[in-house]
C2 NT-type domain-containing protein (Paramecium octaurelia), 185 residues
Amino acid sequence: MNIRGFKFLVEASIINVQIGVQFNCKIQVILKRGSSKLETQPTYELRKGLAIINESLNFSISVSLGLDGKFEDKKTQIIVILVTEKGQKNAGMHNLNISQYLNQQQFEFQEALPLEKCPDKNAKVLVDFKIKQIGEIDQELETTDQSLDISQVSIYTPNKILQESKNEYSDKVQQNYLRHKEVRL
């Protein structure tokens, strides 16, 4: 059972792709979540195994916080595509769970993500991530503010939210007990 939900804006700045291939090509990076996908331009030259990208892909996620104090999984795929005159070829991918960073309270970080299913076992994509809370999701109402000044927002940690939920539940139980006690008298 989920107890509370939050909406986050994730900015993934693709810094570069490092991959060893023996032919001329360009690189494109795709970020895929479910049926939605974001793509960089397919124009980044691969030179001596390095393609400098420096392009940001932004998306929002809604995440529920479980009773265990952990955010539910939010999986994202990062796919690297080789673009040649003959067409496109999948060069590799990396499965990423954004919630692992939320659970560790990491909101700004850089990752060198190794590419899976890639002929070059040392291939990786370097990404800067910035995650900002932009709203809270209530069971009945969702509130977001795209112009939110993040310095004015207090970020709830999973433990803080869990404690608040326990306190609210305890208050409700106590109120119900007192109400039933009054009825019996």
About this structure: Residues 8 and 61 are 5 Å apart (CA to CA).
